[in-house]
Amino acid sequence: MKKTTKDDYIQSVYKVISYIEQNYNYDLTLQELSKIAGFSKYHFHRVFKSIIDENLSNYIRRVRLSSTTLKFNTNQKITQIAINSGYETNASFSKAFKHHFGITPKEFSLNAKKKKGLKMLEAKIVELKSVKVLYVRKEGAYDKSAGEAWEVLMGFAYKNKIKYKKNLMGKSAMMFGIGHDNPNVIDEEKLRFDACISWDDKTVKPEGEISTKIIDGGKYAMFLHKGVYANLKATYNEIGDWIVESGLEVRDLPMFEKYLNRDPRRTKPENLKTEIYVPLK
Length: 281
What we know:
Layout: H1 3-23, H2 30-37, H3 41-52, H4 56-71, H5 78-84, H6 90-101, H7 105-113, E1 124-128, E2 131-139, H8 142-163, E3 175-179, E4 192-198, E5 211-215, E6 218-226, H9 232-246, E7 256-259, E8 273-279
Antiparallel strand pairs: 1-6, 2-4, 2-5, 3-4, 3-7, 6-8, 7-8
Helix pairs in contact: 1-2
């Protein structure tokens, strides 16, 4: 297979992935998704599995179930969570949830809310504008997949700067990280992480593993994490508690991180600063 052909396949599959993650609560058909990819429906599922190493139906199911975990920290009823996540009945949702996580939605809900009443983090409520980013998706334990994703993305930026004299990392560039899954309940080899950068020079086009997406604007709760990235998991656990205690409704979007240090390699670990954004209704 020629490299350019493989790059085209990767770009097309990631268009579909982005579409699935924005529309998983709808009935997604093979015909619809293959059309978005620009492939024949008779071959698309094979191309998808070749690129992602997972069947299309399994991937959609995993995205749907993973999206529900944050909702259990809110006041939504289990039936409402099931319907909002694309399941026609509570029974079908409960069966899929238990098969995937090993416990029932009711048990998971009780575990998610058992810390209610504890002292919570303080949040700053902010309004953000949407931002278009270049991104690289990797899967695996976050401490590993994040490094792999940033290595590919920064390699792309460095190549453009050296070979084409195009600076993607100017002063206005912002760096984001999106961890789509809860590592407390999702197998670490299936955790999805996106390394993202905004960029001004739109003559630079994505290629290979590099894709584009929009980080949605709107109302967010912002938390500031200070210190090493290895401690982010503990902060996320506290944010889950904050969602329970605050009673605020979250939007059906992933949380994301914004990295305030231009070069973490040249920053003392204790001086690293990361903003974590929780989408609110």
